[in-house]
Amino acid sequence: MILELESLTHRYGDELAVDDVSFGLEEGELVALLGPSGCGKTTIVQAIAGHVRPTAGRIRLRDRDVTEEPPEARRVGVVFQESTLYPHMTVGENVAYGLASGDIGAREREKLVTEYLELVALRDQRDAYPAELSGGQQRRVELARALAPQPDVLLLDEPLSALDRTLRERLREEIARIQDETGVTTLFVTHDQEEAMALADRLVVMDEGRLSGNATPRVLYESPPTPFVASFLGRSNALPATVVAREPPTVAVGDRELELQSSVRSPPTGASVTCHVRPADLSISPPEAAGASGTRLSIPGEVVTVADVGRRYDVTVRTETGDELVVELTDDPPTAGERVAVELPRDRIAVFDADENERQRLVAANETRG
Length: 370
Ligand code: ATP
Description:
The chain is an alpha+beta fold. The protein folds into 2 domains: 3-227, P-loop containing nucleotide triphosphate hydrolases (Rossmann fold), CATH 3.40.50.300; 235-369, CATH 2.40.50.140. 22% of the residues lie in helices and 35% in strands. The strands form 4 sheets. The chain has a 6-stranded mixed β-sheet with strand order 6-7-8-3-9-10, with helices on both faces. Helix 2 (91-97) packs parallel to helix 4 (135-147) and helix 3 crosses helix 4 (135-147). Adenosine-5'-triphosphate (ATP) binds next to strand 2 and helix 1. Adenosine-5'-triphosphate binds at residues 12, 15, 17, 35, 37-43, 191.
């Protein structure tokens, strides 16, 4: 493991910013650290870089405990959201500055500056000053400066947030190419789910200082480990239900029962649970189809609104149990006021404990029993 965080915890006074977070990065991986504003992402980056001394927990780089070591003793490259280029230095001098503390000769330094400016396609701008570059070019100089010392880990803290959408998407591809070419182990911090899912091999999802999910984008999307991941990565409907049998796990929504496919932890009979299912996984059928078959639950209801959002329709249905479900349809939408049945396929339902203090996954969508 190149980078390993073990039970990392950080408080700012009474504020618990990072709460017992553990995860690691393997050599060459590109991992996104994803979560909403204030969930503790920057604190984790600052702790890895050595600018914040964690309240508790350990940080290891290449199996060496660096928790107590100063930033200069760690081989970590960082690019922040805001530019930290020196305005009075040229592009070449800025990149060389990152190499200044190393014990390398002038010739080797020149060679590395050229190599890394080439990597970010800015060799011709070597003598320009940062103010003469576009926002995207400045980001690339910062990448070259962070990469030239050949760090063990590259930390990118919301590096694209200050850029407009088109440039962000272009630079995202550029970062993927550079990461692929250099093979540098990278932690990419973002609050943007789409950016994280497009770029990363794996996502580490944070919620209020705690780790809420750690897996590939597909696994987290299709089989979310927590209600937070279910709703943060794409849209999710939450439907209250009750456990009516343990083996096999069976839930009831109103008076309709459905046997679920696998159980992570057997929920007690009578427990209140929440079923999460994505709008694109729901479908609509005529109301007389309502009921439960072996593989799906059909719940009757009335169409409240139909929104034409371009490539699809978002159909909101109020069910007979009083819940509202959003169904994504690509064609043939019903009309508002129409009676319908909403179909929930059982292999797309993830079930969580409804207790706010103990929101663990009970039954996973799309997961085979281990
Ligand atoms: P953002 O994307 O908004 O920067 P973040 O996910 O990076 O958010 P952090 O910046 O790590 O989150 O902040 C985590 C929590 O710690 C927040 O509640 C924040 O208000 C608090 N916090 C961060 N820095 C300090 C500080 N220097 N002093 C006190 N509280 C802080």
